[in-house]
Amino acid sequence: QVLDGAGLDVDFHLLSPKGETLVFDERKSDGVHTVETEDGDYMFCFDNTFSTISEKVIFFELILDNMGEEGQDQDDWKKYVTGTDLLDMKLEDILESINSVKARLSKSVQIQTLLRAFEARDRNIQESNFDRVNFWSMVNLGVMVVVSAVQVYMLKSLFEDKRKSRT
Which residues form the GOLD domain (predicted)? Predict the structure, then answer.
């Protein structure tokens, strides 16, 4: 997501380890992409060469799901259990609840981060508008002062006696 900068747009490229283009967005202000991955190094690039004069502030988040935590972590607790099958079932239920809470908490953290990014972009736009309104208000005030001074001068010149008075 582009938070600040002229036009609020940027190009985005995502390349696979084989060099294939997976995602290519031109002049977008935000985007969400989901990609099935394979082993290797991926390359992503935010490109602003079309607008070299203005710099951009970018927010991005890389979320990796299911990174090898399934098999190893879930079976570690089983070696400490010495009891009946009922106890195993209760522990499995507790583990499922904990994993569910962990997943939901992770999702809420992601959503809050995204909302903070939206808020930052909107705040930058608001501050830019505030500066623009203040500038044009000052220009307007200056024009009003000049116009009022010219009006006073013109009114005074109407009532001046231009004839030479002889005494």
Answer: 1-64
**What are the backbone dihedrals phi and psi of residue 163, each rounded to the nearest 5 degrees, phi first?**
-80, 145
Alpha-carbon distance of 98 to 2, in angstroms, equals 35
Please return the burial class of 54, using the count of CB atoms within 10 Å of its CB with bins 0-12, 13-18 and 19+: exposed
Distance, in Å, from the CA atom of 52 to the CA atom of 20, rounded to the nearest integer, reads: 27
Q: What pTM did the predictor assign? A: 0.43
Residue-wise pLDDT tens digits, 115-144 = 888 888 888 889 889 999 999 999 999 999
In the chain, the amino acid numbered 36 is: E
29 by Cβ neighbours in 10 Å (0-12 / 13-18 / 19+) ranks as: middle
Structure tokens at 52: 């070299």
Q: Phi and psi dihedrals of 97, rounded to 5?
A: -65, -45
Amino acid at 10: V
